[in-house]
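Continuing the series of single-chain predictions for the mutant panel. This is the parent chain; the variants come on the following pages.
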Amino acid sequence: MFRVLRCAVVLLVMLTPGAAAAQSAGAIVAVGGGGTTDAIVRRTLELAGGRNALVVVLPQSSAVEGAGDSSVKMWIDAGAKAAVKLDFKDPAAKARLEAASLIWMPGGDQNRFMTAIDGTGLDDVIRARYRAGAVVGGTSAGAAVLSGLMITGDADLQSLLSGKTVLAKGLGLWTDGIFDQHFLKRLRTNRLMSAVLDHPAVIGVGIDEATAVIVREGRLEVVGRSAVVIFDARRATVTKPDPGGVVSATGIATSVLREGMTYHLAQGAALIRNR
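Parent structure:
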């Protein structure tokens, strides 16, 4: 009962812009779906202020009744100061986002999320909070929306053809790469490789289930049970075919990372062990 009352009081505070704890830099947490492990939750909460974290959950990727409730419970159980599910039509939506130290998007359909947020202006608020130091993350569809170029799910999984992986505009929090989710579990190598060769200036980050990539300070940090595959064609020689033609390239840097490993964006394939 005390916890419920405490959370109710804190949610009132969340209506006031600037209530979130100050942070020096924002972070992105992209989970590949299939479960958010305790280690991922702990690390995310730590970046968001620990027990002072104020969490806003955006469930708009899903049309299922009660979507987002389990995420609210997850963050409260993990020790966040408060967590609230947000309706984009709520008059207090902007103020609550401005107060959040962690903005979290559960799974579903990334296209549905982007349609729901379009025209609300709340995507601008999320980007501003990230620049101001908030942590923004999500799992599965909630991870896909974080990048500038977003995997839509429409792709050819049996060939490597130009233009066959359809991309759309994401939230644009991270513009250096493209996130793909459920990567190893659902055999999505072809669609991410095709996307990268269509857009070689960005890297492809394939995140497997129960695994997360944390983007901060020019690095990708891996946390979780499985692996992350990175396709980096920024220094590759890519031959552009006609639309629908077979793609080709030489010199693509491919890295496979597990928990505790870091990918340095400026250095390409340079890796270190965190622990």
